[in-house]
What we know:
Structural class: alpha/beta
Amino acid sequence: MxxxxxxxxxxxxxxxxxxxxxxxxxxxxxxxxxxxxxxxAAEGGVACASPAELAAQCEVVVSVVVNAAQTEQVLFxxxxxxxxxxRGSLFVMCSTVDPNWSMSLEERLAAKGLLYLDAPISGGxxxxxxxxxxxxxxxxxxxxxxxxxxxxxxxxxVYRLGDRAGNGSKVKIINQLLAGVHIAAAAEAMALGLxxxxxxxxxxxxxxxxxxxxxxxxxxxxxVLKGDYTPLSAVDIFVKDLGLVLDTAxxxxxxxxxxxxxHQMFMQASSAGHGREDDAAVIKIFPGITLPGGS
Length: 295
């Protein structure tokens, strides 16, 4: 039994911590919400009061926070993990970030004698809880060796995309390009159907059994039909992630017209006050329609 730390008990992190515990690891956890840590500890984990306290006890630290800024805080802020980790320990970064930032983080940690895996994740909270999510990883061979079977304990599919950090994050933002465009297109299609007076339930049934279906249409438009915009993945996540996509492409003057349009749609939804709602709320930008549930 190894001592493994996980920082960030959100929708994905909590499920991943549970998967590690089921795999027989001694899981130490930290979250800014102390009550989340205590709830996990009550079921067999170890709650820590800071990233540094966690890192001092664990040879592998998995970070499942929102973005690069939060990762910086976890590592280098007050009570941060970087100075507390023992040389040869491994930091696994699961956030969606700028690939260039991830590559630079590998070098910064290497200077401290620490190993690093660029390991963004995908699949949603349910797959994280069941250990069925996907990890897009890249890192040095010694980092993979240190991880051992921990990655497979958290994910059904672990893709190894390179022997240096960067490609994991590059593949993740390409995934987010597709996810964001598919959600925006699904919302546009459902909005057109509503505007034209088509029954929403009937439209959903037909599309999900036809060639125009996508996983995002099937999943997110179900939220619209229920009028439930509880944020499993929020509008503002795609403001951020599609922004990363566009920043990456802009650096090499590569055109992304569909991603640009989808980003503007999520920006419009956020500006209208829907940023913290489920990303399906991008449908609320369309005028002249009545949504199920009266939203």
